[in-house]
Every structure is written in structure tokens, then in C-alpha cells.
Amino acid sequence: MPIDCQYDDDPLIGLNFQFQPILGADGKRLLAYETLVRRSHKDGTIEGPAGILPALMKPNRIEAFTRYSLEFALTRLDSDPYLPALSVNLSPRQVELAVTNEVIARAPIALRRRLMVELTEDPIYDHISLTYVLHGLTALGVRIFLDDITPRSAQRFTALRSVVHGLKLDRSLLASLAASNLTEAVTDLIDAANKAGLLLVAEGVEDTDVLPRLAARGIAFFQGFALGEPWSEPKVARRRILAPRSASLMPEPEFVTALAGARSGKLN
Known about the structure:
By secondary structure, the protein is α/β, with parallel strands linked by helices. Helix content is 39%, strand content 19%.
């Protein structure tokens, strides 16, 4: 899916996305696919976000990149009714762009309710302004998750608790979460999230043996190479990951129920 750009040698050219599933511990529930930005080069190599995001987030490109990311996800959701949801990574700066609300607001409500925004970490932003914007997105039906959460970033969770539906726990927490001796900081974070009714997703899972222990901590969904690598098409991932486990997809109403149940009354 090409993107038009007026800049010479712009990294937006060749931009595409891969899809990685977010699954329940039993492998039978598919919450969503995260869309992971990539750039395809003429020599066949694929470049990941670390190499391309700095250029994409520059002032003269951030709006085009944000529009492209959202329109890509919404177009895919519209073309595939079997996709329960897609998540898009956006920074606070991207969320506050007018184009973000513009693109999402013009989409049908059925698509907006299958869109997740993963809010990435950014040390410089106005919590009050961001909270206002996020309230507007949730009113449109979008689900908001905070990405890469650790005890050190718990302040983000505290400041934005009223407008988020879930937390994606950073891979650095997995060893602590799977162990029998959790640190107080990790315990406090998990307890606070569960008390707030948030849906918890553990990222970076590379060993399925830890899933029962993580699920016992109140973590409902998981993502990582042990459950599925990113693929160029979500249907490929469904066949290769879920079919061997005789798994069923979460249809759109069930996806909505999973998140609505996490924040009772908030999404109605």
C-alpha cells in the first residue's frame, strides 16, 4: 500500500506493516493483531521501526505517517470482517494531531470499535491536554492501551488511568511476573491495574511455559515470538498459529465484550 509523499528519498516510500497476534493463554482467543511498521527495500531487505521511526516522526512527516497508519488499519478492518481488531502504535504527539481525529471520526462506528491505539512512551507531553484528546477518541469507540509499561513508567498509568482500557506490560517484566517472588513495585502495578478493571497484555513472550503463571497474575492476553512471529498477512498467522490449536477467533462483538467488561459501563 504505497503512500504519496512530496519529499525526495523519503522513508515513507516502501512503508508497510506486518501483523503479530495478541492471544489468550490457551491460544483459543485472538484479541487483536498489532500492526508493526516496516520498510521494504529494493534489495529485498526489510527494515524495522528502530531504523525508520526517527525520520517518520519528524515534523514534516509525522502527519502523513499518522494518516497512513490509521487509514491502513481501518482499510484492512473494512476488507476483512474476520479480523477482530487491529492495534496501531501512536505517540502522544500523533494522538494530538488533528488528522488523527479526522481519520477515525469519518470511519463507520463498526470499524472504530475494532481499532486499538497503543500509546507509546513520550517523556514530554501535557497530561491534561492528552487526557482530553483520549476522551474524545474513546467516545468514538476506540480502545486505548498504554504500551511498554514498567513500574518506572507507572506515572503514565496513574495520569491516564481514566481514559485507558488496558496496559501492555513490557518484556522486561516477564521474568519477575513468572517468578514466585515478585518485587513490590511490580505487584503494586498489577494490583492497581486489576483494581481499575484494565485488560493486561504481556509482551515479549518467548516461552509458553510461563503463560499459566502469568495468567494467574491476572494477565489475560499475550504477545511474542512463542505465540507467533509478525507476518505480512494476518490470515497467514491465523492458519499457522491458531489452526493447530483448534482455536476460534474472537468475533467483533466478543472483542468488544472483552474490553467493555474490563471497564464496566465505560464503553456503553
